[in-house]
Amino acid sequence: MLNRLKAAILAFTCLATVGVATAAPASAITGGIEDTANRYSNVGLLAFYDHEGRFRCTGTLVTSTVLLTAAHCTKGTVGKTVVTFNPVVDREPPSDLPRATDDFGTGTSNIGYQKGQKLPAGYYTGTASTHPQYSDFTDLANWNDVGVIVLDSPVTGITPARLAPADYLSQFAQPALNHETFLLVGYGTEVRQADTGPQNPTPQSYPILRRYTDEVGQKLTPQILQTNGNENDPRGGGGTCFGDSGGPSFKDGYVTTVTSYGYTNNCRYLGGLQRVDIPVVQSWLAGFRVFPAGATKAA
Hints:
By secondary structure, the chain is an all-beta fold. The chain has a single domain (1-299), classed as Thrombin, subunit H (Beta Barrel), CATH 2.40.10.
């Protein structure tokens, strides 16, 4: 069973897995490295509402006003999406992540953000858009799990990431793929023993921070790059988890995929990454003036 890797938020104090059909959301990078040096400053955390509640995902700044993420982090969004590029949001509860105004209440948080008030420094709001051919996890041949957040104001002081050239990942197909690693970044939940209760490693809501890891290639299809996330593998690190949905994989400095799904609830097995180097994705992104590296930008 596939798990979508977005994380449910209840005032950022609990996490729930949401499944649709045979798929469900993704969480934090297990066995990853905390980005204490802010190396991946163009990777941000997204917080938003849909009809099921409040969620968080990850996205990548690809122009000064556009973040690239997963379609299941944008489809059905109610109101604005809140974005921050802070490498550490919270180490312990309660979170001070502001809420965009929504249809589920007053739109206030414990820092008092309300409609018409200015967001704290380091936070942005934006509007979600979903790839029109997103199959909602029902068609592997037309997965298209890609979305964008168009920000209300441009980001300054952060260099956008570069989108991979067309068909870039095909050069890493088998038999080379199992010898290649891909760098994944996200704000997903940590998998560890709980402070109280059952001691089996499970996803925890805190800390909320940016992590990165290397994962080994496992399978490449026309739509999906599948990787093997195992912190005990000497070639790489842990897998993506709940909240890492929409986060990037980097190869040679390019954004090549967005995190789409995982296979296990403990985030220690195969992960599925939506390719963004394919025509059906890149032609749609061009409508937001997001172009692959080296492409000639149309007027």
